[in-house]
Amino acid sequence: MSTTHTRGILTAAAAIVLAASAISITAAAQAADNPTGAGNHGDRNTALADAFNGVDRNTNWQQTSKLKLNFPTYHTEGIAYSQDHIFLSAVQIIEPTVKFPTPQNGFDRTPGKGVGHLFVMDKAGALQKDIVLGEGDMYHPGGIDFDGTNVWIPVAQYRPDSSAIIYRVDAATLDVHKQFEVKDHFGGIVMDKQTGHLVGNTWGSRRFAEWDLQGKQLSTWQNPNYFIDYQDCQYVPNSRMLCSGITNLPQTPAAGGTGAIHELGGMAMIDLKSHSVIRDVPFQQWSTAGHVATRNPFKMTADGGHLTMKVAPDNGEEGNGTEILTYEATVTPAK
After folding, report:
1. CATH number, domain 34-330
2. 213-219, long-range: CB within 8 Å, 24+ apart, which pairs?
3. Whole-angstrom Cα distance, residue 293 to residue 284?
């Protein structure tokens, strides 16, 4: 066989391998956009954005299921779904933080002590692996996102204006990679699959930052919205993020005493190009322990105008323990 012919065969083989790799990456990204497998039609990439633009305060959300988790879950933070797994981040508090009378060394409280967890479950909620994340005072995992290949997790100090580590975990092998560190508390993250960049939100989601995968900060902007503090977010094509969250508001004394609070829940969709809030709506349904359902872990999918939302607002020691609640609603998608 001639050298030229051999090179031709090798070139063709390489092309086939590259093509197969591209197909695999594309399939993984599509699975991340639609982890339940619903809505496999031509415009499914915009189905979630279109449907969420049809949500308002009168949308009729119905709770359709509860999945009880039968292992210690501590204080839940973020949730994500791959084809094979449910991922749930949580913080185990060993020593609570304590507020200083006046700030010390730029901090408003002690660091406390704790352990960061990323629980890996099968689709029935059975624990398969407990991945411990964090270093030193950085032990607080936040909201997480799945990009089709990796789960992205920020693990920060449990205090504002501090520091965080950005991790990625291969959803198939469960290998953990420390991607980079940042100089602030970041409590949530998404992968913008249009740019390949990461976007995180700080304590109380008052500021956003965008980085490349090496941790170089590319931009930063202030949150123009004070409706809720975002707790867990997900990427939505094209270059949008959908977040849920909570604001604790004071109640009148007649509603439970001078220290009573009301948990205001809600969801918001943000344009990652213009940095504007496209749509935000309240959500006031309650968990077994009495928390508003959008308190922490949150993910949503759409099949046309049918929305499915997964949340896990209760801590492991509250109410009936942590339950993954499913809410569904049918809306008229925006045109």
Report:
1. 2.120.10
2. 213/179, 214/180, 215/166, 215/179, 215/180, 215/181, 215/182, 217/182
3. 7
Phi, psi of 199 (to 5 degrees): -125, 125
117: which residues sit within 8 A by CB, 6+ positions away?
Answer: 74, 89, 90, 91, 92, 130, 131, 132, 133, 141
Beta strands in 171-288 (DSSP E): 176-182, 186-192, 197-202, 207-211, 217-222, 229-236, 240-250, 261-271, 277-282
Inter-residue contact 124 to 71 (CB < 8 Å) = no
pTM: 0.86
Q: How confident is the model at residue 28 (pLDDT cuts 50, 70, 90)?
A: very low
What torsion, rounded to 10 degrees, do the Cα atoms 178, 181, 184, 185 define? 10
Please tell me the distance from the alpha carbon of residue 229 to that of residue 155, in angstroms, as a whole number.
Answer: 18
Who contacts 104 (Cβ-Cβ below 8 Å, separation ≥6)?
A: none
